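Input/output pair, single chain:
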Amino acid sequence: MPNHRVKMILNPNADLGRAWRQAADLRPVVDQYGGADWAGTVYPSHAAELARQAAEEGYELVISVGGDGTIHEVINGLMQLPAEKRPRLGVVPMGSGNDFAHALGMDPRPPYALRQIFTGQPRRIDVGRLEDGSGRVEYWDNALGIGFDATVTIRSRRFTYVRGFLVYLTAVLQTIALNHDATRMQITTDQETWTDELLMLVVANGSREGGGFKVSPQAQPDDGIYDYVCIGRVSRLMMLRLLPEVMKGTHGRFPQVRMGKLKHMELRADSPLNIHIDGEIFAGFGMDVRQLTLEIIPGALEFIS
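Output:
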């Protein structure tokens, strides 16, 4: 996309601070394709503000340079504008997981991903909208996790001595040992209604999370529908048995795993929920969120790959 106004939004702290050093490798590619304006994030939610400002200033392409959290913020910034005023989106993976970039088919090597953006074609991708019982709204792109999945995300933040997939694997094992609790949930979707005690519920727009766990292997970010995965009350031993299956994406063959599709969901829980969206904590320890409404917005953004 030469000669178009481009805004690069860099999270220098992505991948435990390594993104700052990697970003220097992108400059020759940027210069080759006509240049871009850069902005760096300095506090939580700053990427959302920068993305919104870029759209308001008439940039035609906004590129997220960082991890899944950076993409999440950028998308929340773009979704604050009417559909016709949202610029195109690009993603350069520089985080520890890079799950949404994987779902979108981006090259894992940042300079090659950037070249892919500048030479690629646009396509529409879906975005999720989440609202809790107090009216708090947030958008998400890759995965929403409730229960076990979210607790793993919370615990993974405490590990600074390992990176990538190993962070999440360590947090999974710790969560199995210390937070193996099921919550009674009443769930109504556009296709079905049920009540169950669940250890984990994931609603997915992308096929994987946690740097490589293939939780929803059939999910596609541009098909206008979510995939969901539930695991009911099972023993710790069974969770350990399921772990390698989730890594391979073959867990759906077990009777303890429920999978399906939905476009809209209403959820009520009997006790407070831990919730993450795109690896960002929406509700954690000490909060009292028990009610959720989520829906998919088909083709909400134009993505370049």
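The radius of gyration is 19 Å. The mean pLDDT is 92.
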